Amino acid sequence: MLTPSPTTPAVLPVILCGGSGTRLWPLSRAGFPKQFLCLTGRHSLFQLAAQRLQRLGPTPLVVCSEEHRFLAQEQLRELGLEQARLLLEPVARNTAAAVTLAALQASADGADPVLVVTPADQVVAQAEPYTRALQQAVQRAAEGGIVILGVPPDRPETGYGYIQASAGDSAGDTAGPWPVAAFVEKPDAATAERYLREGGYYWNAGNFVMRASVWLAALQAFRPDILQACQHAWAGRQTDQHFVRPRPEAFAAVPSESVDYAVLERCPGSAFGIHMVPLHADWSDLGAWDAVWQSAPKDPQGNALTGDVLTHDARDNLVHASGRLVALVGVSGLTVVETADAVLVADRRSSQAVKHIVQALGDGQRPERHWHRKVHRPWGWYDSIDEGERFKVKRIWVKPGASLSLQMHHHRAEHWVVVRGTAEVSHGTERQILSENQSTYIPLGQQHRLRNPGVLPLEIIEVQSGSYLGEDDIVRFEDQYGRG
Q1: DSSP per position, 259-272
Q2: β-pairing, 274-278 with 146-151?
Q3: What is the CATH number of the domain that holds 401?
Q4: Based on the domain organization, do 312 and 380 belong to the same domain?
Q5: Is residue 365 part of a domain?
Q6: 192-194-195 Cα angle (round to 5)
Q7: SS3 for 133?
Q8: Are 18 and 95 in contact (CB under 8 A)?
Q9: Are 369 and 361 in contact (CB under 8 A)?
Q10: What's the first-to-final CA gap in the chain, in angstroms?
Q11: Per-residue pLDDT reduced to its tens digit, 131-151
Q12: Its pTM surpasses 0.90
């Protein structure tokens, strides 16, 4: 842990938890994006980011979407970080606006900590070198500079932006910080090969460090329109114990721009000096399925396998089975991802093109773009296990002590059967306690609420029947989670 001292500045870790991870569909979806997925073990990418930053000291500040606030809060709770403050974006406005919200929050009481900013959706296999690189960056940033982490490339990658450092090389530097000469866009294959041969080019890891005041001053110099719009939204913010919400209509007017385009790429040669610290820590942004294959453990045939998978004469494949047996015979270089409602089969070299499938799903307004069959809610989750004309069957799981909203439906009735735990059911003027194998009926148009009063999880089977069974047929009267 980096403990403040007379020579060590106050540090505030910031996790940028936006993004939808469309290239990792069908596992990553808009309603449950990749940063909340467990792709490399027991913890999600977001949780791994929070754990890495705990080495620097205080509880992190999290910037995430309003839609994902309960996912982020629950995953922080699992790490014992219940006190983390979440800045909620009502709409996505890219990373420049997200970092500006963090800087405004950090400086709200006249403080000026060093912000250590990291995306929530990366993998860093070696924690110690990562912490050392950040500590090195913090010392430089405390003096008023901006410092970014650069990853020495080990292959001619075309999916990353690059940093050109004015000293050092990609063969193994552990020194720095080096002045940044330029930022370069994602290259074509020939250019990436040249970068690898020449050295001095590093992958842009998207991790950067600077004082809150330095960020605000640089944004004022380069993009005052973004700063002023963010300040306007911030002035109308609403705050409670865990959440800070900028004024929605004002935040929607903030120009959408990345940190790199808005500020960082303009810094070389300007009054805002920018340096790079090399990061030797087995970093990956897991931006596409091929990157997941690169980072995953493999069998002797080069297959990265997750779930119930059998292979015969198969090599260099990535297979992720969520719930069913997947078998591969005589194939190589494939990505196969199975979920309850969708299966992806792709050439692993075409991982970046998965975004076109996601675009087609959006164009067709298909639910598979946004939601999994299993949908997480602040009170637990539900899984739509069957559906037909005028009926739908759900498995509903409710956390101990949690409660669904007091609600009503215009177009459907519901039958509930308790299969585990204890349910407290309110409907109309009645209140009843149901235990295992007991059931109840909620007529169309009846106000009702489901609560788990016990200390064990509650599981019920819900059978809906009616003319319309969409999730938008919910009228909420009371909700402890503040949903409308």
Answers
A1: HHHHTGGG-TTSSS
A2: parallel
A3: 2.60.120.10
A4: no
A5: no
A6: 65
A7: helix
A8: yes
A9: yes
A10: 41
A11: 999 999 999 999 999 999 999
A12: no
